[in-house]
Design goal:
Helix content: 25-40%
CATH superfamily of the largest domain: Vaccinia Virus protein VP39
Order of helices and strands: EHEEHEHEHEEHEHHEHEEHEHEE
CATH architecture of the largest domain: 3-Layer(aba) Sandwich
Strand content: 15-25%
Shape: elongated
Radius of gyration: 24 Å
Number of strands: 14
Strand order of the largest sheet: 2-3-1-4-7-6-5
CATH topology of the largest domain: Rossmann fold
Number of helices: 10
Number of domains: 2
CATH class of the largest domain: Alpha Beta
Bound molecules: S-adenosyl-L-homocysteine
Length: about 375
């Protein structure tokens, strides 16, 4: 089995955030390369555990089982058959071809790609485990989800180690109206200029995602510590190694003072944010309160504002959005030394807000194209003593 061998691994990530994930991977001491929506690296079963446990901005960690060219179903069958399935899948494993995807390729009928690939894996396992060909394999054990992607006739066969996406940390009640995904919120905090010694305010905090992710980053709480992963059921994943990694992660949690405020006009959201923060273990370092963003004032020297205000497709009608963004601009204008990071899909945001962003970054919130408008605070002159 594969446990100690080096495998080709990929962290999938929302387009636009690859560099953030790559930086996280490198911070774990793992060399990596970036492609569109992907960060590629190598590692053994422990690497799979570590990256699932620690990566904040990625979606999933997958094993690249193999890659080959195929323009016919025969080539697809032979290519899948040739892969080393027995070192991943024990006898009894469930192995759905959970996803087939074809882009710019001769083979494009996705159900057929799935069926042929399944047949090839079955045949390989029957041969390896000396099972008669006519009798179907029993799939009663742990699940190993296989994906087959074709791009310009190149087939990539993957095994998903994560299970439900990494954005699910396990702390959020699914009740917020239009919450940002946890991995996107974490990524935005990681690419912002916020550091734990600076005040942070999210004046449209909703379910509290930005504040909670920021606090988890500051306290060094591993994002995967409170959830489970598909690989945990796999027989070649050493449970004790994973327990040890989680133990180390628990010990690595830092206690430190933080100045994080989340506010929202909707009192129910504030309550929800508080509950989520409690489950995430960061309620003691975040203040949540009910407040209109128009009432935001601060005399702190500098800090970071992060906001994911309502936008047209989601929560408010156009007129109210125009007014809200305009008032936002007026409210934030006096805070010249504060940096602001505002995420919205409204392409007219800057005009309504009243100031052009220093930098804009295109991102995707699910399938919705959004922009992160970044305004950097003026440098604060330090007084000499
Ligand atoms: N990022 C949040 C979602 C934000 S949705 C999350 O992850 O859950 C936008 C939020 O802005 C909503 O919760 C809404 O109640 C709030 N909101 C709308 N108008 C507001 C205003 N004038 N002042 C403060 N909050 C407002």
């Amino acid at each position: 089995m594969k446990a100690k061998e080096q495998m080709n691994l990929v962290a999938t990530v929302a387009a636009g955030l690859e560099a953030v994930t790559a930086k996280e991977v490198r911070a774990l001491g793992i060399d990596c390369q970036v492609e569109n929506g992907k960060v590629l690296f190598q590692g053994d079963s422990k690497t799979i555990m570590t990256t699932n446990l620690w990566l904040r901005s990625a979606d999933r960690i997958k094993i690249i089982v193999g890659e080959f060219q195929a323009k016919t179903f025969e080539e697809l069958f032979q290519g899948v058959f040739a892969l080393d399935w027995a070192s991943y899948l024990p006898l009894g494993a469930k192995f759905p071809i959970a996803k087939a995807k074809s882009v710019k390729s001769k083979l494009h009928n996705e159900p057929s790609i799935q069926a042929i690939s399944k047949k090839a894996v079955v045949k390989k396992l029957q041969a390896h485990y000396h099972r008669p060909e006519g009798v179907p394999l029993q799939e009663i054990g742990a699940e190993y989800k296989i994906e087959v992607h074709l791009l310009k006739d190149k087939v990539t066969v993957l095994l998903d180690t994560t299970g439900s996406s990494l954005f699910k940390r396990g702390y959020r009640e699914e009740k917020g109206l239009a919450p940002i995904k946890e991995n996107m919120a974490a990524a935005i905090m990681l690419l912002s200029n916020w550091y734990p010694d600076k005040p942070l305010i999210d004046p449209t905090c909703g379910s509290g995602t930005f504040c909670i992710e920021a606090a988890m980053i500051a306290k060094n709480i591993a994002p995967g510590l409170s959830r489970s992963f598909a690989f945990e059921a796999w027989d070649w994943m050493d449970e004790q190694v994973f327990e040890q990694l989680k133990d180390e992660a628990r010990k690595a949690i830092k206690d430190l003072p933080l100045d994080i405020l989340g506010s929202d006009i909707d009192a129910r959201m504030v309550e929800l944010a508080k509950r989520n923060a409690t489950v995430a273990g960061v309620a003691d370092v975040i203040t949540f309160k009910q407040m209109r963003l128009q009432d935001l004032k601060t005399d702190k020297i500098n800090g970071v504002i992060v906001s994911n205000p309502p936008y047209g497709e989601r929560l408010l009608d156009d007129k109210s959005i125009d007014i809200l963004y305009n008032e936002m601009g007026q409210t934030f204008a006096p805070l010249t030394t504060w940096s602001k990071f505002i995420l919205t899909s409204d392409e007219g945001f800057e005009a309504k807000y009243g100031t052009k962003a220093d930098k804009k970054r295109k991102l995707y919130n699910g399938t919705l194209k959004v922009d992160l408008y970044q305004y950097f605070g003026e440098r604060v002159r330090r007084h000499t003593i």
